[in-house]
Amino acid sequence: MRCFIAVDLPEKIKEKLRNVKFDERVVKIILPSDYHITLKFLGDVTESKLERVKKELARIRLKPFKLKIGKIGFVPNSRFARVIWIGIMPKRKIIKLKEDIDNALVFLFEREKKFEPHITLGRIKSVRNKDRFMEMASLEIEGEFKADSFKLIKSELTKEGSRYDVIEEYS
Fold it and tell me: Catalytic one among 39, 118, 119, 145?
């Protein structure tokens, strides 16, 4: 089964992000219920490996911390944008949590070389009016929340998009 580890967002933050309007001809919008901060993508995991993952993640001690949502960004960059996302600040504590997860799973999965904490808002189909589109990049959305847990999530790809089911929550 296809899995990843993420910090879920409170409804008040999802609501703020839901209010960011995109031209649906330009951006395929992620459902607000699916907004999260991916900490580690595991890919396809066997049942036996999944049990080891759950055991290792349970050993991680998470001290709750506050995060803020910030500026809009693009992957790979604004000139060749494929994904639109919103950044997370401060980065230090969420990067530390990601490193703790990498350390716990180092014997099961490779470490990821680069990590930019963010929330994916949508996938970019095509950009007709570059100037108007780039105005979105100047958007800054304010919102603060407490990260007090992370989740192991099963991801199933469907015609309508990804469907997520929480396997386990760690706090």
Answer: 118
The structure's pTM equals 0.90
Quote the tokens at residue 103: 């350390």
How many C-alpha atoms does 109 have within 13 Å on its Cβ side? Answer: 25
Tell me, rounded to whole angstroms, the distance of Cα 47 from its chain centroid: 24
pLDDT 10s digits, 65-74: 999 998 888 8
- What is the CA 9 to chain-centroid distance, rounded? 9
Task: Specify the CATH class of 2-170 in words.
Answer: alpha beta
- To the query of whether residue 118 is one of the catalytic residues in this protein, the response is yes
Domain parsing of the chain, residue ranges: 2-170
Tell which residue, 5, 8, 35, has the closest CA to residue 120: 35
Identify the H or E element spanning 99: helix 91-104
pLDDT of residue 79: 73
Catalytic annotation, pick one of 4, 14, 36, 152: 36
70 flagged as catalytic: no
